[in-house]
Design brief:
Elements lengths: L3 E7 L3 H5 L3 H8 L16 H13 L3 H9 L6 E8 L2 E8 L4 E6 L2 H14 L4 E4 L1 H13 L3 E11 L10 E2 L5 H11 L11 H6 L3 E6 L2 E9 L5 E8 L6 H18 L3 E7 L3 H9 L3 E11 L2
Parallel strand pairs: 4-5, 10-11
Antiparallel strand pairs: 1-2, 2-3, 3-4, 5-12, 6-11, 6-12, 7-8, 8-9, 9-10
Length: 296
């Protein structure tokens, strides 16, 4: 069987990428250049994005569908696609935080995608389904790549009458967000900081504040898409934190649900506090993945 692989990187910030001509974007993506500037900075790789999304939808990889739908609102990601004469056999996305999401229909495609991911040296956390885990685990284990294993859960929000509280971040909050991130990393030193400036510009980060400054943040990726994803960050535990976190999540999620959008959160099952917060707001578990922390 003949396999063809494609790599479509998006390595610049959104501000930089929006200013590129179609020729420059096409050159980055390894595609044929176009003669006129593109209104959509991702137009040169729109086909790959579209095909990858159809693949994820057909195989009911809901978390991957959500991720692919949000790529146009993100930066510094790397999409790899493996094709056969019968169609796409597998796709891989490495996000800016080092999360490597991969799905494939057979072992050969999974191993090809793993080879590309290894060359990029960006993958820090693998998230995938059980079949792909079975194909990749022997290879990763034999190379001593796995530092830890667990499970990631996809939760879907539902409408609730719980009152939210918070505010959308403004540029004047950048220094406060940097100080907040320093507190977050006290418990999770391996976390990479979100791109606060871009998130603020696109209205995708909300915060809760206390006497000491910002104590929690929710990043809402794909806020303008039919499906949006939530990611909750918070400082180490303190008295009254649970109520603050619940209010902030509801502040972000409930207006969008009322507008007809689907809201999801990806959470590590071992994160008991986050699981409890989302559960208390009625979030329902819809899918799970194998997760492995990888040696960089």
């Amino acid at each position: 069987m003949r396999f063809q692989s494609e790599i479509c990187p998006a390595r610049n910030s959104r501000r930089r990428l929006n200013a590129l001509t179609a020729k420059a974007v096409a050159a980055q993506a390894g595609c044929a250049p176009m003669s006129e500037p593109a209104a959509d900075p991702y137009s040169s790789i729109a086909l790959q994005l579209h095909d990858a999304l159809r693949f994820a939808e057909a195989d009911q990889h809901l978390g991957l569908v959500l991720l692919l739908g949000q790529l146009r609102h993100s930066s510094d990601w790397r999409l790899s696609v493996v094709r056969t004469p019968a169609g796409i056999a597998g796709i891989s996305v490495i996000s800016s935080d080092g999360t490597w999401s991969v799905e494939a229909r057979n072992e050969v495609a999974a191993l090809i995608l793993a080879e590309f991911a290894g060359q990029s040296r960006q993958a820090r956390v693998l998230c995938t389904s059980e079949p792909v885990r079975g194909w990749l685990l022997p290879r990763l284990a034999s190379k001593g790549c796995i530092l830890g294993e667990g499970q990631t859960v996809l939760l879907q929000a539902v409408a609730t009458a719980f009152a939210g509280a918070g505010s959308w971040a403004k540029p004047t909050m950048l220094s406060g967000l940097d100080a907040f991130w320093g507190e977050v990393r006290r418990e999770k030193p391996s976390l990479l900081p979100p791109r606060w400036r871009s998130l603020i510009a696109f209205g995708e980060v909300a915060v809760a504040t206390g006497n000491a400054g910002i104590v929690a943040a929710v990043v809402c990726s794909g806020r303008t898409e039919p499906q949006a994803g939530l990611h909750l960050y918070r400082v180490p535990p303190y008295e009254g934190q649970r109520q603050v976190l619940r209010e902030l999540v509801a502040f972000v999620a409930q207006p969008l649900i009322a507008a007809g959008k689907q809201m999801f959160a990806r959470v590590d099952r071992e994160d008991a506090q986050a699981m409890e917060i989302y559960s208390s707001l009625g979030f329902k578990e819809v899918q799970t993945w194998y997760r492995a922390t990888l040696r960089s």
